[in-house]
Amino acid sequence: MIKRKDLYIRDPFVVPVPNEKIYYMFGTTDINCWNDEKATGFDYYKSSDLENFEGPFIAFRPDKNFIWDKNFWAPEVHKYNDMYYMFATFFADGRNRGTQILVSEKISGPYRPWSIEPVTPKDWMCLDGTFYVDENGEPWMIFCHEWVQIYDGEICAVRLSKDLKTTIGNPITLFKASSANWTRSIKKIKDHECYVTDGPFIYRSEEGKLYMLWSSFIENNIYAVGISLSRTGKITGPWVHSENPIFAGDGGHGMIFKTFEGNLTLAVHTPNKRKEERPLFITLEKSVLNDTL
């Protein structure tokens, strides 16, 4: 067993499996995910109490035909039409960073490539695709158009085909990082202030309100999580933002899940320091989303 405080992972994504009474936790597990060394793949961990974990277990290892070999980041696993789909970020020399979709018949994998190459635009630098099915049953991916290309990072959305193999139509820009009052520029390049968008996650409350968690930076380049609300309850917005982040403790890339006891829980990694990241789980009061926006 590995204690939560000793477990290295960035971008934790927790999937409760009720019939097993087990939480599956995916995330960025390569220590070398930031440099030019070849990435290994993705692992996952299992826990019954979110404090003691078994693993790592192999979720994905690329074969020789896989086009990506670096920056294996932020895998999310979503059940859809009785299959399990992994949305993950990849990079390779000569290509822009992007999100590709993998698939498995079982939550435990192994996962294999599914989408027709990336489902983010090939000429964009992108990351952190997440999955959402709208009120009409249409699948969408929400993702980040990176600040490294456009200075002021954006959260975008694009419709997916029913089989999640490819996209339908062009991406829609939902908002820019600087549109939230709590974000701060991390640096200035060529007279451009640079604002980060990371880790969008969509959550619909029991009252039917549509929220988005996403990460950026506050003063002193501290990583934080903010929350936004769709005024229409639709993924296309318009979106309004909290005045302050809901987590500002040098951590981020948040997602929300419910424990087997019914507790609404925020998962983040902290600190946001390379090779020191650990998963953190924070119980949320049901009113916290309404009180924030």
Structure characterization notes:
Keywords: Glycosidase, Hydrolase. One of its GO terms (biological process) is carbohydrate metabolic process. The record marks 128 as: Important for catalytic activity, responsible for pKa modulation of the active site Glu and correct orientation of both the proton donor and substrate. Pfam families: Glyco_hydro_43 (PF04616). By secondary structure, this protein is mainly β. It contains two helices and 22 strands. It starts with a strand and ends with a helix. The mean pLDDT is 96. 3% of the residues lie in helices and 50% in strands. The chain has a five-stranded antiparallel sheet with strand order 1-5-4-3-2, with no helix packed on it. A four-stranded antiparallel sheet has the order 6-7-8-9, with no helix packed on it.
Quaternary organisation: single chain
CATH superfamily: Glycosyl hydrolase domain, family 43
Overall CATH architecture: 5 Propeller
- Looking at the structure, the CATH topology is Tachylectin-2, Chain A
Give the radius of gyration. 18 Å
Measured between the Cα atoms of the first and last residue, the distance is 40 Å
Structural class: mainly beta
Count of strand segments = 22
- Strand content bin: over 45%
Side-by-side strand order of the widest sheet: 1-5-4-3-2
Mean pLDDT across the residues is: 96
**CATH top-level class:** Mainly Beta
Unreliable stretches covering 5 or more consecutive residues? none
Q: Helical stretch count?
A: 2
Proportion of residues in helical segments: under 10%
- What's the order of the H and E elements? EEEEEEEEEEEHEEEEEEEEEEEH
| Envelope shape | globular
Number of domains: 1
Taking the sheet with the most strands, its summary is: 5 strands, antiparallel
